[in-house]
Specification:
The complex is a heterodimer.
Chain A (H helix, E strand, L loop, with lengths): L1 H9 L2 H6 L13 E2 L2 H4 L17 E3 H11 L1 H4 L35 H11 L10 H14 L8 E3 L14 E3 L5
Antiparallel strand pairs in A: 2-3
Chain B lengths: L1 H8 L1 E3 L3 E2 L2 H5 L2 H6 L40 E4 L7 E4 L17 E3 L13 E5 L5 E3 L1 H5 L4 E8 L17 H5 L2 E10 H8 L7 E6 L6 E5 H6 L2 E6 L2 E2 L9 E3 L12 E7 L14 E2 L5 E3 L7 E6 L10 E10 L5 E7 L7 E2 L1 E2 L9 E9 L4 E9 L8 H8 L12 E4 L5 E4 L2
Classes of the chains: A mainly alpha, B mainly beta.
């Protein structure tokens, strides 16, 4: 152990810098390299800037049909909620001391999160079953129900990140003691 | 006469709290001797059947005694689901600091996946020089480390935000907290092998469950004490706690300790997943919400006595409970038996570890009158657990998460223990 310490201390900093692209020799290095193409099926997270959004598109009208078929049983007609989460309304309910109604329209800060979450987790009993077009469509429908986009707007990789959610500025990064 | 005066000198706070010295020196017998109420002798000892015939044969995996069936988790699921919800640890029926694996709390966002370990993979990619895939066989060959750490759901104790105190016990209110020994690989070792791009400031962790539960955390945590864990309390992590692989971010809110870990992506900024925007954010009276509230603050709860554990007549009792902080070690725990008017220092059971629960113990001579028991933790950073009024003044009562206010248990003259606000 002390020998190893001596050895590490004796390696000049310049040598460590030169060997940086090569895996550290002390480490087991048992991971297998994988190409971007081969990991693409797992890379399903969408950044708030839209990074990762796939090709495809959907309209409000198309989304209404998807919602009726796949979502309404849990989230209610037009996303009114019951038996599960309410998705629509509640804007203006956040300040004060009355119960807040936290929905896509009143609380969610990024529209991209809708695509990310619906594609990965919904419908609950068959997640990851919707096509990208269906996800874009149902996202468009929910945004329209909340009065955020007009009925004529189409959601795709270009338009979705540009949607400004009503509560976009509603979050403060926590700092301890403040 | 002499014994009476001695037990009086041991009192350190109102309503019968005794000096912790008795736990440190083992002198409880001296105090207890003066307090035996029933002076009648014990019944003659019977030689029971189990002392006469051979007991049960061996079995492959030990189970608790059949007399302990009530020591069980309780749970609630979202409407129409079987496994979306949470199951709670019965702290009033446990002691020590380690939660048995089968009683560890569980919060699942789409049930417990049935993962074939031979097919499970961990992918590390994003802002790295070489994206890498690991099998469990690969990971099993890495140097491992063990640490004892608590995991607490951010929503634990949220019931105390209710306007009126709920008729609920310590399991129902505080059961989304558990503590295990975790064994695995430092996440930093795997990230270094993949080669961290200097632009990487955040890490996305994602589970292999049907919800694909995902959270972002700062890369500093990944390089500090984050682990990918294969073992819990010596055996492979239980399915409900993330088999075959879970992330451990010691001290951070439970849901960030991603279970069924399948993917780590290094990113420039937070991904803003559903569970770090629409959930797990703390709504303030102003209408703004606190985001990225990661470590749980200093907190303690009395587990004994607590609702359901009726105090049986005046005399000696041990008050005990759990204290923890996501920011380090517990420095001290104070206990009150008079609703916070006076406080006495509790004994801390060794070991006292950073980001693990610490068991505290306090001797109590109950005089049979009404009492309100409270505990107040201070962590090594000097943070003091707030009262209910202090936390509500700070954040209102609609925040849902990170409720670490002082719990009050009222003990009635009947011995019944209830959740109250005091």
């Amino acid at each position: 152990m002390s020998m190893r310490k001596v050895f590490v201390a004796a390696v000049p900093a310049v040598l460590i810098a030169l060997t940086a692209p090569v895996p550290a020799q002390q480490s087991p290095n048992l991971g297998k390299p994988i190409s971007q193409e081969d990991l693409a099926s797992w890379d399903i997270s969408i950044g708030p800037d839209g990074a990762g959004l796939p090709p495809g598109s959907g309209t409000v009208q198309q989304g209404e049909a998807v919602f009726a078929a796949k979502c309404q049983a849990c989230h209610g007609e037009k996303g009114a909620g019951q038996p599960n989460d309410r998705l629509v309304g509640g804007q203006g309910s956040l300040p004060g001391d009355k119960p807040a109604i936290k929905t896509v329209g009143s609380y969610w800060p990024y529209a991209t999160t809708l695509f990310d979450y619906i594609r990965r987790a919904m419908p609950l009993n068959e997640s990851k079953s919707l096509t990208n077009d269906e996800v874009y469509a149902v996202v468009a429908y929910l945004l329209n129900l909340n009065g955020i986009i007009p009925v004529s707007e189409t959601m795709n990789a270009e338009s979705l990140p540009k949607v400004m959610m009503p509560n976009r500025e509603g979050f403060v990064t926590f700092t301890r003691g403040k | 006469m002499k014994e009476t005066s001695r037990s009086e000198t041991e009192r350190v706070a109102g309503n019968g709290l005794l000096h912790r010295r008795m736990f440190l020196t083992g002198s409880a017998a001296a105090i207890g001797a003066g307090t035996i109420v029933d002076q009648a002798g014990a019944a003659p000892l019977a030689v029971e059947p189990w002392m006469r015939i051979p007991g049960a044969p061996f079995n492959a995996y030990g189970q608790p005694s059949k007399y302990e069936e009530k020591v069980a988790r309780t749970w609630a699921s979202a409407p129409g689901t079987g496994g979306t919800g949470s199951a709670r640890t019965p702290h009033h029926l446990l002691n020590g600091m380690i939660t048995p694996s089968g009683l560890h709390f569980e919060r699942s966002h789409s049930g417990v996946p049935d993962i074939d370990p031979d097919k499970h993979r961990l992918l590390i990619h994003g802002l790295v020089k070489r994206p890498l895939v690991f099998t469990l066989d690969d990971l099993g060959r890495y140097p491992m480390q063990s640490r004892i750490a608590f995991v607490e759901c951010a929503g634990n104790s949220g019931a105390l935000f209710a306007k009126q105190p709920a008729n609920a016990n310590v399991q129902a209110i505080h059961g989304l907290l558990s503590c295990s020994e975790w064994t695995g690989i430092k996440l930093s070792v795997l990230l270094e092998e993949a080669g961290i791009d200097p632009a990487a400031k955040w890490v996305l962790a994602e589970g292999a469950d049907a919800a694909g539960m995902s959270r972002s955390f700062p890369i500093e945590k990944a390089l500090d004490d984050a682990m990918v864990c294969l073992y819990q309390n010596g055996e492979r992590v239980r399915p409900s706690n993330g088999y075959p692989l879970r992330l451990l971010l010691p001290g951070f809110e439970g849901n960030m300790n991603v279970k069924w870990l399948r993917r780590i992506k290094l990113t420039a900024g937070p991904t803003m997943t559903k569970d770090e925007t629409s959930k797990y954010t703390i709504l303030l009276p102003s209408g703004k919400a606190l985001q990225f509230v990661f470590p749980l603050e200093g907190k303690s709860i009395i587990t004994h006595p607590s609702p359901g554990l009726t105090v049986r007549g005046p005399g000696f009792y041990e008050i005990s409970g759990l204290a923890w902080s996501g920011y380090g070690k517990i420095a001290k725990v104070e206990v009150s038996a008079d609703g916070g008017k006076s406080w006495g220092l509790a004994a801390l059971q060794e070991p006292v570890l950073s980001k693990a629960v610490t068991r505290f113990r306090m001797a109590w001579q109950w005089d049979g009158g009404p009492a309100v028991l409270q505990s107040r933790a201070t962590d090594e950073t000097g943070y003091v657990q707030p009262s209910r009024a202090q936390l509500v003044a700070l954040r209102g009562d609609r925040g849902n998460y990170h409720n670490n206010m002082i719990q009050s248990w009222a003990v009635a003259a009947s011995g019944e223990v209830k959740n109250v606000y005091a």
